[in-house]
Inverse folding.
């Protein structure tokens, strides 16, 4: 075992703060890195030490692996935590860190590399009998051969980038006539986004749910699963609302998915925190999708229902310690929800709405947690993901957790930019969500910009009209009194100005 005394967080914003808070509770010194755009960010102020990496663009700052390692050496850093995004699933970075004699708080470079390729991941878990969506077992570039395979699988099919994520390099093909065009687009997008044009084909699940399992493993080959997270409410194939546990997963299904996730982790000799993602069809059959070899954005909901600090566990595992608990020690306590508060305009196709946080007041109260990296008066940088915060609620039941979240959304005060708060409130109040009867097509099926417009019923409109008449009559009376001059010979207020 090797004790960590100083930890550098190779990230920014809310995840950097979240990691450093746990580190400080463990008596570990912290080092922040930042770009010039984040010079005054809360994560920089919170750290014991901070290092500027360069200009705002991430390829000139947060993605500079060698510069980060140089900072570690100059400050005698023991370990690096990559957070999520940026270099968190970069096997080359993980190897450079370990080769420099620094602890990488995450899995081995080999595990990252295997699970970083969707095809390699499928091949790795194939011998464990884990259910997988019918599809190709290797990358396809020959369009005619790919067409034959698509016919064999049966339309609709999904073309996916092997090295992809976040919906990039992904195309749904419903008919043979559009196959060639969509495949060329998928290859082109994959090359542009990942520098790798390899694609493969899967059967497209028409009403899918996205359910994932949190796993933890140590270097002594102990692996446990910390139950599931439901992540089906998405826009542009990216999650917006997550919850734990899922409304549709039975104890038997939970056990089967959890054990399958542990087997996936064993297939690549995994240690650290990781997430095994499954796609679930309308009959609740589940299929292995991929493994994320890092801490997930939505990890707080798992922490809320298990009482486990996943960052603390990551650090202890990185020190070489065995897990302090077994599978049988874990129980589900209540229900947790997380919404991602993005600086986006849902009424304008969720396009980023960069600006200044003129007002920024967080909700408070029992069972409410806000993970963020901003303060009132700060600008939202255009260079990075537009997520402002993660708002998490926890209560005894799903219904109570939803109601607590709605109250927290109403208490969250943000002005100066558009956010997804109103959209999230719309989702939480929708019958499809409250009933648990929804899938990844929630936005497509139920949401449109006008849904966020204020809707008044006839009684409310009549009341507003009555109030308007009363105000108008009072103003007319006041007008008669204030026309002309006052007793001191000064002009009285103009009627037109009184209405402005």
């Amino acid at each position: 075992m090797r004790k960590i005394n100083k930890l550098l967080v190779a990230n920014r914003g809310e995840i950097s703060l979240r990691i450093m808070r746990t580190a400080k509770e463990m008596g570990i010194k912290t080092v922040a890195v930042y770009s010039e755009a984040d010079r005054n960010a809360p994560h920089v102020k919170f750290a014991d030490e901070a290092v500027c990496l360069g200009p705002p663009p991430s390829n000139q700052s947060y993605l500079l692996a060698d510069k980060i390692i140089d900072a570690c050496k100059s400050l005698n850093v023991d370990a690096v935590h990559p957070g999520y995004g940026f270099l968190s699933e970069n096997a080359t970075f993980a190897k450079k860190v370990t080769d420099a004699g620094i602890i990488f708080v995450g899995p081995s470079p080999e595990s990252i590399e295997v699970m970083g390729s969707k095809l390699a991941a499928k091949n790795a878990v194939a011998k464990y009998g884990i259910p997988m969506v019918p599809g190709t077992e290797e990358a396809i570039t020959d369009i005619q051969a790919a067409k034959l395979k698509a016919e064999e699988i049966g339309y609709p099919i999904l073309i996916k980038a092997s090295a992809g994520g976040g919906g990039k390099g992904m195309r749904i093909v419903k008919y043979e006539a559009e196959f060639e065009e969509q495949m060329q687009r998928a290859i082109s997008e994959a090359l542009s986004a990942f520098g790798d044009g390899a694609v493969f084909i899967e059967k497209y699940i028409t009403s899918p749910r996205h359910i994932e399992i949190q796993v933890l493993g140590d270097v002594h080959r102990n692996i446990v699963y910390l139950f599931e997270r439901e992540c089906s409410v998405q826009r542009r194939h990216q999650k917006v609302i997550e919850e734990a546990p899922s409304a549709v997963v039975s104890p038997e299904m939970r056990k089967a998915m959890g054990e399958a996730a542990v087997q996936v982790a064993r297939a690549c000799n995994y240690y650290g925190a990781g997430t095994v993602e499954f796609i679930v069809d309308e009959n609740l059959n589940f299929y292995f999708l991929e493994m994320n070899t890092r801490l997930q954005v939505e990890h707080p909901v798992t922490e809320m229902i298990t009482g486990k600090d996943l960052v603390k566990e990551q650090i202890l595992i990185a020190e070489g310690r065995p897990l302090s608990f077994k599978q049988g020690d874990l129980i589900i306590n209540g229900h947790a929800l997380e919404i991602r508060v993005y600086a986006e305009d849902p009424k304008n196709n969720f396009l980023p709405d960069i600006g200044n946080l003129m007002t920024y007041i967080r909700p408070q109260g029992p069972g409410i947690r806000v993970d963020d990296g901003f303060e009132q008066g700060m600008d939202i940088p255009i260079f990075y993901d537009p997520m402002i915060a993660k708002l998490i609620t926890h209560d005894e039941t799903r219904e109570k957790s939803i109601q607590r979240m709605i109250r927290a959304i109403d208490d969250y005060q943000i002005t100066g930019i558009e956010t997804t708060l109103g959209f999230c409130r719309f989702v939480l109040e929708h019958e499809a969500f409250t009933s648990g009867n929804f899938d990844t097509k929630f936005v497509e099926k139920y949401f449109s910009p006008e849904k966020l417009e204020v809707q008044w019923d006839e009684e409310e409109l009549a009341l507003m009209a009555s109030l308007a008449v009363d105000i108008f009559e009072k103003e007319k009376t006041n007008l008669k009194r204030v026309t002309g001059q006052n007793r001191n010979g000064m002009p009285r207020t103009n009627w037109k100005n009184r209405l402005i």
In short: The first strand starts at residue 6 and ends at 9. Residues 479-500 have pLDDT under 50 and may be disordered. DSSP finds 17 helices and 20 strands in the chain. Residues 108 and 340 are 29 Å apart (CA to CA).
